[in-house]
Design a protein that fits this description.
two-stranded antiparallel ribbon, 4-stranded antiparallel β-sheet, alpha+beta
Length: 91
């Protein structure tokens, strides 16, 4: 039988019960489509290489904001892709 037309009755029933008891307005079809789309997105994100900056034994992912103090002053830097950016310059 074609897998695209088969769903375990137990899983279907469990989903239907969950949607009903949780008060969800989603239909079973809508819930299935959302779940599959979320699974695809999560899987693709997990497979894509993470960019960031390696500093000694610490990995700082892209998007990290650093705050450093020197004396009484605070300084900020950002990790963008694989670069450490301070005052607009790659360090």
């Amino acid at each position: 039988m074609d897998d695209s037309k088969v769903m375990s009755y137990a899983i279907y029933s469990e989903l239907a019960l969950f949607l009903r008891t949780s008060g969800s307005a989603l239909s079973i079809s809508e819930a299935i489509v959302r779940a599959i789309k979320q699974w695809i997105k999560t899987t693709q994100e997990a497979e894509s290489p993470q960019t960031g900056y390696q500093w000694k034994c610490v990995f700082l992912p892209s998007g990290t904001r650093l705050r450093m103090s020197y004396g009484e002053q605070l300084f900020y830097a950002d990790i963008v892709d694989d670069s450490l950016i301070f005052r607009g310059r790659i360090m």
